[in-house]
Design a protein that fits this description.
The complex is a heterodimer of chains A (349) and B (390). Chain A has 349 residues and is mainly alpha-helical. Chain A is built from 8 helices and 9 strands. In chain A, the strands form 4 sheets. In chain A, strands 8-1-9 form a 3-stranded mixed sheet, covered by helices on one side. In chain A, strands 2-3 form a two-stranded antiparallel sheet. In chain A, strands 4-5 form a two-stranded antiparallel ribbon. In chain A, strand 4 and strand 5 form a beta hairpin. Chain A is rod-shaped, with a radius of gyration of 46 Å. About 3% of the residues of chain A have low confidence. Chain B is mostly helical and 390 residues long. Chain B is built from 13 helices and no strands. The chains are: A mainly alpha (349), B mainly alpha (390). The interface between A and B is large, with 61 and 60 residues.
C-alpha cells in the first residue's frame, strides 16, 4: 500500500517535472529573438545608390542576369520591389525636391525575429536560424504562396514562369557565406559602408550612437528595432521613414501572435462540439421517443375508452332487446292462452 | 410509385452538352498551358498579388457556398428536423462536389500540386492556419464522400456496405460540423496575418467568427437557390416526398437564414465598433462597406423575414440568390477588392481571362458531374428498395 503510494507520488513528480521544464523554457518565457543573432544596419545617409550591392547579390546567389545592367542609372527612376531575379533592389526617393540630393534605400528580406512567412507556411519551409537569417527550403515547398501574402514587407517573390519546379525567391542574408565566416555579398560590396554587418544587439548600439552623435542628421528611430516584433535588418535615415517607402503602420506585434488565438480555439471546438451536438442529438431522440410513447399511450387510452363505451352500449342494447323479446314472448304466450281459452269457451257453447 | 416520373429526353447533342463540351475543351487547353508554362502563362498573379480568383472565388466562395452540406445534415440528423429530410441528399451532393471543385481548382493554383500531401506526410507546419484549413478540408472531403456514398451504393446495389455506412450517419454528421466549424472559420483566420494589407473595415480579429457565421447563411441560401434550380431542370427526377416538402424547406431555411443574417449583421457591427473604424465609413471603401452590410446582409435578412411571414416562396428564392451574391462579394472583398488597397492602381490585380476560363471550366465540370449523378442516382427520389429505411 505504502509502496504503491510512494510509486504513484514518484510518477506524479516525474510527470510534473517533465511537463514543467519545457513550459518554463517556451510557454511562460516571452521569446525575444535569438540573442546572439546577426543582422545588418543600413544607414541611408551614407548610401549613394551605386547598386554595387545588387550586383554582388546577383553574383553570389547565381541569379539570372538582370533585364537592364547594374550600371544603368535609369533603373532608379522607377520604384521597384524584389522579384524572382533580384533578392535586393535599391530605390531612389527625391525627398528633398527634384533639385535636392535624393535618398537611396536598399530593400531586401528584413529577417524578422518572428517571421510571418514561417508562421504562415503549412509545410514548415521557412526556418529562423539562430544566426539571424530566415531561410527557405525549396525541397518541401508546395507553392501556395501564403508566405508572399503574409510578409508585411512584400519581400518574397515567386517563380511564376516555371512550370515544374517553381520556388519562392528571397534574400538569405547569405546564410551559407556567413556560416563560412564571410560577409553577406551586399555588405562586402558596399563602397560607402552604408551597410554594417554584426550582432543585432551591437548594431542597435551603433545606430543609437550615430543618432546621439549627429542628432541633426538622423531621425531618432531605428527602424526594425521593434517593427513587427523586431527584424534583424535595421535602418537609420535622415528623412521621415514613410517618405522612403517604409511602412510605419505595421505595429510591434509579431506575426505568430495574430493567429495564436484562432489556433487556440481548435482544441476547444474539437472538444466541445461533439459533446454539445451529441447531447442535442440524444435530447432530440429522447424527446421524440417520449412523444411517441405519449402518443401511443393516448391512442391506447382512446381505444380503451371507446371500447368501454361500445361495450356498455352493446350491453344496453342487448338488454333492451332481451327485455323486448321477453315482453313479446310473454305477450305471445298470453295471446295464445287467451285464444285457447276463447276457443274452448266457444266449443262448449 | 405513386406517379410515374415523366420521361424527359436528354439527347447527346443537346444545347447543354455542346456548350459544356466546348468549355471543357478550352479548359483542357488552358490546363496544358498552365502545366507547361507555369502560373505566369495563364494568370495575372504577381509577387504582390499572389492570390487571385482561384483562391478568392473557387476556394473561398466555393467552401462557403458548399456549407449547405453540414448545415442541412445537422438540422435533420442532429436537431431532428425531419421535414427537411428531402434536402439532405442534394445538399450533401452539392457539398461533396463543391469541395471536390475547390481541391480541383487548387491543383491549378499551387505551384507544385503533386506536393499537396507534403504538409501532412513530410513536414507539418502546425503554426500555420493553412495547415488547419488543409487538414480539415481533406478530412471533410472524406466525410462528405462517406455521407454521399449510400447514394452511389444504392445505385450500384451494394446493400451490405450501404447498411454499414448508414449506421455511421450521426457520427459523420457531427464530425462534419466539427470540421466545417474549424475550416470555415480558419479560412477567415488566414487573413489575420495581413493587418497591413487588408482594409481595416474588413480586417478584424473576429474574421474567423465572421467567416463561420456567414458560411451558415451561405449554406442555407445555397440549398434554397439550388433547390429552385433543380425544380426547374430535374423535376422529372423528383418523387412526391421531394416535391411536397419543397415549400417547407424554402420557408424553414429562409427563416433560419434570416436569423443567421441578423446575428451576422450584429457581430459585424461589433467588429466595426471594436476596431473603432467609424471614421472610415465616410471614405470610398466605407461606402462600399455600407453597400455590402446594408444591401447584402441587412436587406436579405429583412426580405427573408417578410417572405417567411407572408409565405412568399418566390421572394425567398430570389433573396437566396441575393444572399449568395452577397457572400461572394464579401469573400472577393477580402481576397481581391479590399486587399492591397494601399498599393497604387497599376500594381493592383485584375484576373486574366485565362484565369476566369479555368474557373469556368472547373465549375462546368462540377455541373456536368452533378447532372450525371442526379439523373441516375437516388438524390431527388428515394430508391424503391430502401423506402422508409431511415
Amino acid at each position: 500500500m505504502s509502496t504503491s503510494r510512494r510509486k504513484f507520488l514518484k510518477w506524479l513528480t516525474a510527470a510534473g517535472a517533465a511537463s514543467a521544464l519545457p513550459s518554463v523554457a517556451e510557454g511562460h518565457g516571452h521569446f525575444t529573438g535569438y540573442s546572439d543573432s546577426y543582422g545588418v544596419l543600413h544607414d541611408t545617409t551614407l548610401c549613394v545608390g551605386c547598386r554595387s550591392c545588387e550586383k554582388a547579390c546577383n553574383e553570389v546567389n547565381d541569379l539570372p542576369a538582370p533585364d537592364r545592367p547594374f550600371d544603368d542609372p535609369t533603373v532608379l527612376s522607377d520604384v521597384r520591389r524584389t522579384d524572382e531575379k533580384a533578392y535586393t533592389v535599391v530605390n531612389r526617393y527625391d525627398v528633398n525636391g527634384p533639385s535636392g540630393s535624393p535618398v537611396f534605400r536598399k530593400l531586401q528580406c528584413n529577417h524578422c525575429k518572428e517571421p510571418a512567412c514561417a508562421s504562415a507556411c503549412f509545410v514548415g519551409a521557412f526556418t529562423k536560424t539562430p544566426e539571424g537569417a530566415v531561410v527557405y527550403d525549396a525541397s518541401v515547398c508546395v507553392g501556395c504562396r501564403y508566405c508572399l501574402m503574409a510578409c508585411p514587407f512584400d519581400i518574397p517573390a515567386y517563380e511564376y514562369n516555371k512550370a515544374l519546379e517553381p520556388r519562392v525567391m528571397k534574400c538569405t542574408m547569405c546564410h551559407p557565406r556567413v556560416a563560412e565566416g564571410k560577409l553577406p555579398g551586399c555588405v562586402e560590396a558596399c563602397p560607402m559602408e552604408a551597410l554594417t554587418f554584426g550582432k543585432r544587439d551591437d548594431l542597435i548600439t551603433i545606430a543609437r550612437e550615430r543618432i546621439r552623435k549627429y542628432p541633426d542628421r538622423y531621425i531618432d528611430h531605428v527602424y526594425g528595432e521593434t517593427e513587427v516584433g523586431g527584424t534583424n535588418w535595421l535602418y537609420i535615415t535622415g528623412a521621415p521613414f514613410e517618405t522612403l517607402g517604409f511602412r510605419t503602420d505595421l505595429g510591434v506585434t509579431p506575426a505568430p501572435e495574430l493567429t495564436s488565438g484562432a489556433l487556440a480555439m481548435v482544441p476547444v471546438v474539437i472538444g466541445v462540439w461533439p459533446a454539445l451536438l451529441g447531447g442535442i442529438y440524444i435530447m432530440s431522440q429522447r424527446k421524440e421517443k417520449i412523444a411517441n410513447q405519449e402518443k401511443a399511450a393516448a391512442v391506447k387510452d382512446a381505444i380503451n375508452t371507446t371500447q368501454a363505451k361500445a361495450d356498455a352500449a352493446l350491453k344496453a342494447a342487448t338488454e333492451k332487446a332481451k327485455n323486448e323479446k321477453d315482453k313479446a314472448v310473454e305477450k305471445a304466450v298470453k295471446k295464445a292462452l287467451d285464444d285457447a281459452a276463447k276457443q274452448t269457451g266457444g266449443g262448449e257453447a | 410509385m405513386a406517379d410515374e416520373p415523366m420521361v424527359v429526353e436528354r439527347p447527346l447533342l443537346s444545347k447543354f452538352n455542346v456548350i459544356a463540351g466546348l468549355i471543357i475543351l478550352v479548359g483542357l487547353w488552358l490546363t496544358f498551358k498552365r502545366f507547361t508554362g507555369g502560373l505566369g502563362a495563364v494568370s495575372n498573379l504577381d509577387h504582390s498579388n499572389p492570390w487571385g480568383i482561384w483562391i478568392g472565388f473557387d476556394l473561398l466562395c466555393g467552401v462557403a457556398l458548399a456549407a449547405g452540406g453540414y448545415t442541412t445534415a445537422a438540422a435533420v440528423e442532429i436537431f431532428n428536423m425531419k421535414k427537411f429530410h428531402a434536402a439532405v441528399r442534394p445538399a450533401i451532393l452539392t457539398g461533396f462536389l463543391g469541395y471536390s471543385m475547390v481541391v480541383f481548382a487548387l491543383l491549378y493554383d499551387v505551384g507544385r500540386p503533386w506536393r499537396l500531401p507534403y504538409p501532412f506526410a513530410v513536414n507539418q507546419g502546425v503554426t500555420s492556419v493553412m495547415f488547419e484549413v488543409g487538414a480539415c478540408v481533406a478530412l471533410y472531403l472524406t466525410v462528405l464522400f462517406l455521407e454521399f456514398s449510400p447514394v452511389a451504393l444504392e445505385w450500384l446495389g451494394a446493400k451490405k456496405i450501404r447498411a454499414v455506412v448508414v449506421r455511421l450517419t450521426i457520427l459523420l454528421t457531427i464530425l462534419g460540423v466539427v470540421l466545417s466549424t474549424l475550416h470555415q472559420s480558419s479560412l477567415g483566420a488566414m487573413y489575420l496575418l495581413v493587418p497591413s494589407k487588408l482594409h481595416p473595415l474588413w480586417y478584424s480579429p473576429y474574421l474567423p467568427v465572421f467567416f463561420f457565421v456567414s458560411s451558415i447563411a451561405a449554406g442555407l441560401s445555397m440549398v434554397i437557390f439550388e433547390g429552385s434550380l433543380s425544380h426547374r431542370f430535374f423535376k422529372d427526377k423528383m418523387d412526391d416526398e421531394h416535391r411536397k416538402s419543397a415549400n417547407d424547406i424554402v420557408l424553414g431555411f429562409g427563416k433560419g437564414c434570416s436569423m443567421v443574417l441578423a446575428a451576422y449583421f450584429a457581430i459585424k457591427v461589433f467588429g466595426l465598433a471594436l476596431g473603432n473604424n467609424w471614421n472610415l465609413l465616410g471614405t470610398g471603401y466605407g461606402l462600399w462597406f455600407m453597400v455590402e452590410m446594408l444591401g447584402f446582409v441587412l436587406l436579405p435578412c429583412l426580405l427573408y423575414a417578410i417572405g417567411v411571414r407572408e409565405k412568399n416562396v418566390t421572394l425567398i428564392k430570389w433573396t437566396a440568390l441575393w444572399t449568395v451574391l452577397g457572400i461572394v462579394i464579401n469573400r472577393l472583398n477580402i481576397v481581391l477588392i479590399c486587399f492591397n488597397w494601399q498599393l497604387p492602381a497599376d500594381q493592383r490585380y485584375f484576373p486574366h481571362w485565362m484565369e476566369i476560363g479555368i474557373s469556368v471550366f472547373v465549375i462546368t465540370v462540377g455541373i456536368v458531374v452533378f447532372r450525371f449523378i442526379v439523373t441516375r442516382m437516388p438524390i431527388f427520389f428515394e430508391h424503391p428498395d430502401y423506402k422508409e429505411a431511415h
